[in-house]
Amino acid sequence: MITRHLQPTTNQSFFLFGARGTGKSTFLRSHFKQQDVLWLDLLLPEVEDRYASRPSLLAEQIAARPDPSGWIVIDEVQKVPKLLDIVHSQIESTGTRFALTGSSARKLKRGAVNLLAGRAFVYHLYPFTTVELGTSFDLNTALAFGTLPGLLNLQSSNDKAEFLRAYALTYLKEEVWGEQLIRDLDPFRAFIEIAAQCNGELINYSRIARDVGADTKTVQSYFQILEDTLISYMLEPYHRSVRKRQRQAPRFYLFDTGVCRALSRTLNIPLNPGTYAYGRAFEHFIVTEALRRNDYLKKDFRFSYIRTKDGAEIDLVVDRPGESTILIEIKSSTKVDQTDLRHLKKFMRDIPNSEALCLSQEPLPRIVDDISILPWENGLAKIGLSTERPIA
After folding, report:
1. For residue range 51-81, what is the model confidence (pLDDT) as tens digits?
2. CATH assignment of 299-383, among 3.40.1350, 1.10.510, 3.30.70, 3.90.550
3. DSSP secondary structure string, 23-90?
């Protein structure tokens, strides 16, 4: 079994959020394997119905337990948000500890999560990192199919592609339609394909709205659904002024390279090194890997990008509290050219206390004009996102 980076508290109730298929239930079953845990799986319709119709049932079950302070797992708690009132009460009155999983924060945003503020920690689980996969990791496989746990035991490319197609369909039918996040699935289906094709790009809401045949506010709400269901990130533009940062468009990334290819319907197109598509997938992979590690390691780094009106661009800016700001160019090439570094040179002069890195597939580190050209694994370590193996 793959050892995950995540190491949640053993003393405090916590939320564990993550997109469908990231292995939340599997992780918790391993985490609590030595303990007597009451498990409520709200993905089962009969269980969901039982607690939705009478949430107080949970309090009655806790009262009957030999140790009321023992652990209770509530899987996909957003399906019955009223249970959080009971959870809050039981934490206060009996000291019961809860592990609450969720793949969507949308329903919980209606005040329920705030109710538990300070009483439950918050963690996230992601597709596997390269460190978690260890010797099982293969870069080209990760670029083409991603690193969702469900892929681990699939050998053929056809099986992996079918898994990802099924994942995309399940997401649309169960996470979006089944949770009644929208009334009409067809416009959202068209939107999500276009959004996936825009992965890694600045969001132009009005252009996407024209392509989908919807108004801009609807498209903005669709992007919010992707964030709320934890399958996308928004990378904000870099600027020391928050006000000026908010005037620029964010850059959009889906949470996994394979899911991106499934939603954009490009799984049948080979990803060949040296192509534009391969370069985009490599950049996507590096960004998501950095975000995952940052969260697991609790580094509190802030990630952003730079793009000027004249087209000068920095793929990733890492603002590290108390340390230098890291400017990163991401290149999938095995041989980085000096022309690839021109924007780094410019911004390294313009941004005080900054360092410049180029993360690539070059086999050995080297320095050109004070810019470190590094194998991407070395680059992530230099930023402070350690490549040490998680503790078993």
Report:
1. 999 999 999 999 999 887 889 999 999 889 8
2. 3.40.1350
3. -HHHHHHHHTTTS--EEEETTSHHHHHHHHH-TTHHHHHHHTSS-TTSEEEEETGGGSTTHHHHHHHH
